[in-house]
TrEMBL record:
One of its GO terms (cellular component) is lysosomal membrane. Belongs to the tetraspanin (TM4SF) family. The chain crosses the membrane at residues 12-38, 58-79, 91-116, 215-239. This is Tetraspanin. It comes from Ceyx cyanopectus. Keywords: Glycoprotein, Lysosome, Membrane, Transmembrane, Transmembrane helix. Interacts with SLC19A2. Interacts with NTRK1/TRKA. The gene is Tspan1. It is found in: Lysosome membrane; Membrane. Structural component of specialized membrane microdomains known as tetraspanin-enriched microdomains (TERMs), which act as platforms for receptor clustering and signaling. Participates thereby in diverse biological functions such as cell signal transduction, adhesion, migration and protein trafficking. Regulates neuronal differentiation in response to NGF by facilitating NGF-mediated activation of NTRK1/TRKA receptor tyrosine kinase and subsequent downstream signaling pathways. Plays a role in the inhibition of TNFalpha-induced apoptosis. The keyword Nucleotide-binding does not apply. The keyword Transmembrane helix applies. It is a multi-pass membrane protein.
Amino acid sequence: LSPGAKMGCFTFIKVMMILFNLTIFLGGGTLLGVGIWVTRDKNSFLAIFGTLSSSVMQFVNVGYFLIVIGAILLIIGFLGCCGAQRESKCLLMMFFSVVMIIFIAEVAAAVVALVYTGLAETLLSAVLTPVLKEKYGVDVRFTDTWNLTMTKVHCCGLNNYTDFNDTHWLEKYGTYPEPCCKPDTGPCNATQAAESKVPGCFDQILEEIKTNAGVVGGVAAGIAALEIASMAVSMYLYCRLDEK
């Protein structure tokens, strides 16, 4: 290529790098703002987005999760955008390093998830089950959310009906939650719950993830491809700066 063509290619890639990372920066700022809002005013968030958001928030602290993701995207977008705009080798190298670290962490997490899936499920269940035992029947919002989730998903507890043993609900009412038994079987006692064999919500969620594994894998592959492309572009700009 002629020097003019090379310069034109460099300028085009530089502009695309700026626009791409500006989008990431604005998206990160939006997520950070929403995360702060959710953390500070959770009730308004639940009122606007309804029961689905409430169900999700029983498993994940959405506010802090959004703050972390938003902050990471802000840093990446800032480094990439400013590095390309100012043609700073230092910022471009920092951008490359941050994306590389995230990419390696994602690959490591994927490998661990594949190799230690059973162990991860056991540990997660061991952490969440005590919370269910402690709050169900005591915290009204928590109880209503779980009742709605179990009714909609057709599941019972995290693993099965035994998750409700030694709970305040069982001590107070002497029965298990209605979703733990088949409809029209009378009071949901231990016998009825055992015969109904309603699966746990944790198993249902995992089954849904496995059913949509293709979509999840496609999204993960798309994100990985974007990260690789971003690293390649930043390194191209970094190397071309030596030739200018």
